[in-house]
Design brief:
heterodimer; A: 102 residues; alpha+beta; four-stranded antiparallel β-sheet; 6 strands; 25% helix; 28% strand; B: 450 residues; ten-stranded mixed β-sheet; six-stranded antiparallel β-sheet; 21 strands
Chain lengths: 102, 450
């Protein structure tokens, strides 16, 4: 078992507009990319639990051309709203970092 | 045709040498994106512009001067970050100042994209508003209460201004892509390639290694476009360019535009030479319905904050309870000057979190607090934050030995009024029959001899 963060070279989050968060998980090589994709561990159900969003709203998009998995879902707090902690959304990647990959 | 983008955001600066090197290989348009929704709703709500006057002037000066020297248009979108009326006005004034100082002559086009509230209300009434999420509901009241609403212009007004011979085009809120894709589309270049090119260059040299706020150019060929950074120390690589295509996009294969979407599912990337990448096979699919993305901002209240720290582990251990009882204490001690409906009290804790404790050396544990209040008036915000501050400062938690006070304040005064706070009130699509409903173009002749 390895943690997701130890298998990827980039793990970044950012707004895609104020309502949407998008996380890019980029891998150094096809092996790690395919290992994570095939493990099925980075899935909508897990993301839904970690970020407290509806599973149906979570998109996991495989972008094999650059060995990247994109995770996109609605922000729970709209960027810049009174209770928001992270206007740009660039420190919201951590919850998925420790997902265990077979 | 060659399109040159100054940098990722006007006001960040760029090496002039990079621009000169890019221009030396040919130029048909110099463009710059000035906007983003990333920094939040403050700018649209307050009417303040992003960056500084001096930084914007420096970038505009170089960009416009070089464009005029080379007799090619200078195109800028999303003035002053948010692209509303006051934002476009300040950029216009900066450009007029530059023109006067340098004795420049040119035809100026100002593309206004702030929308009339009645227009947006009519769209809502007609069922022509499409939400992009369920977090913000657009209502007649929220439109009325919005301080301003802007529409992200597509290519149409830029193409019109170019056709009218405008040499400097300054736009309010606009799609990043429209700045760079309009001229190629006007000249008959394939729309899918034009938008894909524009989506990459609007961030400047972020698609290069090393990535940076710097100049990038795109050479448009019949079957694709070739990206090359202006700065010889940077190079574009297939990985970097393909990866950049997915940056801050919710989906990597589609770029949504007012009149359709670019389909990148079959796009191909090849290393053209050591420093440049060629992109081919990006397509465009026209949409049945034309849409414009709108952004609105609304006043949420007035903010007062207090920043403080603690070095006491016992205090940190008691924080969860302390935060809960601070909220109760404040609510009970406002003595009729405000009710809990009048404010939001949010105590933000930085560090010291027990769940993260494995990363913290307990011997030097530190925690930072931001007592954050947003209230319907500035006076209530200050009252609530100072009441909460006093309570936390002197709270007698279990086992307390540092009885002189619980908080280290870095600033005097300890409370700071941050003024009005805005929230997004709209981030929706509206269906339009004719894009001309959503913009006005104002032309001006600047200087003596045009």
């Amino acid at each position: 078992m390895s943690k997701l963060v130890d298998l990827c070279k980039v793990l970044r989050s950012k707004n895609a507009g104020p309502l949407t968060l998008t996380i890019d998980v980029m891998f150094e090589n096809k092996d790690n990319y395919e290992r994570v994709v095939n493990s099925g561990a980075l899935n909508a159900q897990t993301v839904s639990r970690l970020y407290d969003v509806d599973e149906k709203d979570v998109q996991i998009i495989e972008y094999g051309i650059v060995d990247t998995i994109k995770v996109t879902f609605p922000r729970k707090l709209v960027s810049g709203s009174v209770m928001d902690n992270d206007v740009y959304g660039c420190q919201l990647h951590r919850p998925i970092a420790n997902i265990e990959i077979n | 045709m060659r399109i040159i983008a100054l940098n990722g955001a006007l006001g960040y600066g760029f090496p002039e040498d990079s621009l000169d090197r890019a221009i030396a290989k040919g130029v048909d348009l110099i463009g710059a994106d000035c906007g983003s929704s990333d920094p939040g709703p403050h700018y649209l709500g307050s009417g303040q512009y992003g960056f500084t006057y001096e930084a914007l002037k420096r970038d505009l000066d170089v960009g416009i001067t070089k464009a005029l020297e080379n007799k090619v248009p200078f195109v800028m979108g999303s003035a002053g970050l948010a692209g509303g009326k006051p934002h476009l006005a300040i950029i216009r004034d900066i450009v007029l100042e530059i023109a006067e100082e340098k004795n420049l002559s040119f035809k100026l086009a100002l593309i206004h994209t702030e929308l009339d509230k009645d227009y947006v209300k009519a769209k809502l009434e007609a069922g022509k508003v499409i939400p992009l999420g369920d977090q913000i509901e657009l209502t007649e009241q929220s439109i009325e209460d919005s301080i301003r609403i802007v529409g992200q212009a597509g290519t149409e007004p830029f193409i019109k201004a170019l056709e009218e011979g405008a040499e400097v085009i300054l736009a309010g809120r606009a799609c990043d892509t429209a700045i760079f894709a309009s001229l190629p589309i006007m000249k008959g270049y394939p729309t899918g390639l034009a938008f894909h090119m524009a989506k990459i260059v609007e961030c400047g040299a972020l698609c290069a290694i090393p990535a940076g706020l710097d100049v990038v150019s795109a050479q448009l060929e019949d079957d694709g476009f070739i990206l090359e950074p202006g700065n010889p120390e940077r190079r574009c690589t297939v990985d970097r360019v393909a990866a950049h295509t997915l940056y801050v996009q919710s989906k990597p294969f589609y770029i949504y535009e007012p009149d359709g979407f670019a389909d990148l599912t079959e796009s191909e990337y090849e290393q053209f030479d050591d420093r440049s990448v060629k992109v081919t096979k990006s397509k465009f699919k026209e949409a049945d319905t034309k849409t414009i993305k709108i952004e609105g901002a609304i006043l949420a209240g007035y903010r007062s904050i207090c920043i403080a720290g603690s070095n006491e582990q016992l205090f940190i251990d008691s924080l969860e309870d302390l935060i809960a009882n601070t909220k109760d204490y404040v609510a009970e001690n406002l003595h009729g000057s405000a009710t809990t409906d009048d404010y939001t009290l949010n105590i933000r804790v930085y560090g010291g979190n027990k769940e993260e404790a494995d990363n913290i050396d307990i011997a030097c544990a530190k925690v930072g607090l931001v007592i954050d209040v947003v209230a319907k008036t500035e006076a209530i915000a200050k009252l609530v934050s100072s009441t909460a501050r006093g309570w936390i400062m002197h709270f007698d938690y279990s086992g307390r030995k540092s009885t002189a006070g619980n908080l280290a304040f870095p600033y005097s005064p300890s409370e700071h009024n941050l003024g009005p706070v805005y929230e997004w009130s709209a981030y929706h699509l509206i269906e339009v029959d004719d894009f001309a409903e959503t913009y006005d173009i104002e032309y001006r002749t600047i200087g003596g001899e045009v």
